[in-house]
Design a protein that fits this description.
Number of helices of chain A: 3
Largest interface: A-B, 75 and 75 residues
Oligomer: homodimer
Strand content of chain A: 35-45%
Structural class of chain A: alpha+beta
Strand order of the largest sheet of chain A: 7-4-10-9
Number of strands of chain A: 12
Number of domains of chain A: 2
Radius of gyration of chain A: 21 Å
Order of helices and strands of chain A: EEEEEEEHEEEEEHH
Distance between the termini of chain A: 60 Å
Helix content of chain A: 10-25%
CATH architecture of the largest domain in chain A: Alpha-Beta Complex
Chain lengths: 201, 201
């Protein structure tokens, strides 16, 4: 490949070959795996550390009054509390929507018969292999008792969705994956508001 | 505390006390640290695994024509390519805006004299201690040569910002932290578009 240059910003990047994978460290919630990879054109190799864990899910649950079910909990990563939408780790073999409804029910006691997938994102393509699914529940109702894990202790609050967006823009909601769900729902919410303003349209 | 119950969804969650921290595993880009924590009221303890790394930054760079500087690169976490805005790891002592401009220049050769902070988010409050700063550069211009790291190989493209939002909603941009930057810029972009439609307003 006489004309092949590494520094061509107009060309699609090559896909590196994985030569081997080695477990570097295992914790109960994720593994750190070393991927030994080789650039297919340049031939140079490197070790890349990847955090491998189950897929995640979160759920934007709206009541009939267009309030969002928010939960506040102590988060050990940041050593502080954080207002979020319900979510968690998917179980083996579980479908995203079933997992989202399970987390919603366990954390808040809310259920819904109108659930759909808003989208899916990668928490960090550079170092994490998993996917986070973002679900939307309409007509969420409090029908069940809460069912918290041993370490869970949540404050639950219903907040008008426009206020939830305001919290996000003020930095009071700062979990990246929660912001993603709010972003992907925004066009539908704007359409709904426009219809409410001009019901004959 | 006779009336204190763990299961009170109307009460603020307690802040756990950190009893000790122990390094569990170190890789070149992050450490996994075990936090031994105790609930201040219930007294029960647990080990919580926290991924500790430097803070991150990304930058939404807009040209005078309202195009976004996008980069596509192979990402080892997902084993695939990903369209993103420029970004990376902040250096020790570096300010967020300086880091954002450095990453923009190194990855794409673009610079800007109009940079501000859009906001900051927590990549994952549950398991990560760091912050990701989101920067906005206006009037970005290609003034420098690209300066890629040994393993970097990027495809660079200018895309109209409305098309960038369309890519996000279609799932073609899926990096959670890139979507956060797009979300936090959206109100300003909508205002700017409204002004362009009614210049006398």
């Amino acid at each position: 490949m006489p004309n092949w240059s590494q520094h061509d910003p107009g060309r699609k990047p090559e896909h590196w070959e994985t030569l081997s994978q080695k477990n570097f460290a295992s914790s109960p919630i994720f593994d750190v795996v070393t991927h030994r990879c080789r650039h297919p054109k340049l031939g140079h190799e490197g070790d890349f550390y990847v955090l491998e864990s189950r897929d995640w899910v979160n759920i934007l649950a709206l009541t009939p009054e267009k309030q969002v079910v928010l939960v506040n909990q102590f988060r050990f990563g940041i050593g502080d509390t954080s207002w979020e939408i319900p979510g968690g780790v998917m179980e083996a073999g579980e479908e995203p929507i079933a997992a989202a409804l399970r987390e919603l029910k366990e954390e808040t006691g809310y259920t819904s018969n109108q659930v759909e997938l808003l989208g899916k994102v990668r928490p960090n393509p550079a170092i994490q292999s998993n996917t986070c699914y973002l679900a939307l529940a309409k007509d969420a109702q409090k029908t069940e008792a809460i069912d918290w894990d041993h370490h869970e202790e949540l404050e639950i609050k219903l907040v008008d969705i426009d206020q939830v967006y305001a919290m996000a823009f003020r930095g009071e909601i700062f979990h990246s994956l929660v912001l993603d769900a709010l972003m992907l729902y925004q066009p539908e919410w704007e359409k709904l508001k426009a219809r409410r303003r001009s019901p004959s349209a």
